[in-house]
Amino acid sequence: MTITTRLAAEADLPALLALFQELHPDDPAPSGQAAADAWRAIEGQSGRAILLAETGGVVVGTIDCTTLPNLTRGARSFMVVENVVVTAGHRRSGVGAALMEAAVARARQARCYKVQLLSRSGREAAHAFYESLGFRAVAQGYRLYLG
Fold first, then answer.
1. Beta bridge partners of 116
2. In the prediction, which pLDDT does 143 show?
3. SS3 per residue for 98-112
4. What is the residue-wise DSSP string for 50-77?
5. Using alpha carbons only, what angle is made at residue 39 by residues 95 and 93, rounded to the nearest 5 degrees?
6. Which of 35, 52, 67, 98 is the most exposed place for a label (fewest CB within 10 A)?
7. What SS3 class is residue 125?
8. What's the CA gap between 123 and 48, in Å, rounded?
């Protein structure tokens, strides 16, 4: 199976929304207008890239990468990774690794000093996957959800 990664475009919104529904099945789907507005805002953010993985011309995964300028570490940026999703039928087939490798390559190209992500507790398979790629659980994360 050949896996390719590329930048997402607005035309990919239906595929992205389907992937995000797998990630958060209980979330209400945004309206078409809300999704388009959010996409345009994302597209306008400097350092932001949503990548897709495809196999056989079908979108099977995504990852959201944001490179942030920084005043520490010699003014080297860092990357935050969010919304890593691979369709259920393509998990454990290299899609997630291809997406993570593409994200890390972008971080290296931007001279980032680190790539960081959060993963919910209780997701041992996902945590083992990230660790297999060299990521380490070295910090405790906190969230404040704003209802």
1. 80
2. 85
3. HHHHHHHHHHHHCCC
4. EEEEEETTEEEEEEEEEEE--SSGGG--
5. 5
6. 35
7. helix
8. 26
Burial of residue 47 (CB within 10 Å: 0-12, 13-18, 19+) is middle
Secondary structure element (H or E) that encloses residue 137, with its range: none
Q: Scanning the structure block, which residue is given the tokens 């199976």?
A: 1
Per-residue confidence (pLDDT) for residue 147, from 0 to 100: 83
Q: Is 1 exposed, middle or buried (0-12, 13-18, 19+ CB in 10 A)?
A: exposed
CA 29 to chain CA centroid, nearest Å: 19
Q: Beta strands 58-68 and 115-117: pairing type?
A: unpaired
Per-residue pLDDT tens listing for the chain (147 residues): 899 999 999 999 999 999 999 999 999 999 999 999 999 999 999 999 999 999 999 999 999 999 999 999 999 999 999 999 999 999 999 999 999 999 999 999 999 999 999 998 888 999 999 999 999 999 888 888 898
**DSSP code, position 142:** -
- Tokens for 65? 């990468």
For residue 4, the Cα-to-chain-centroid distance in whole angstroms is 15
Sign of the C-alpha dihedral, residues 98, 82, 104, 142? negative
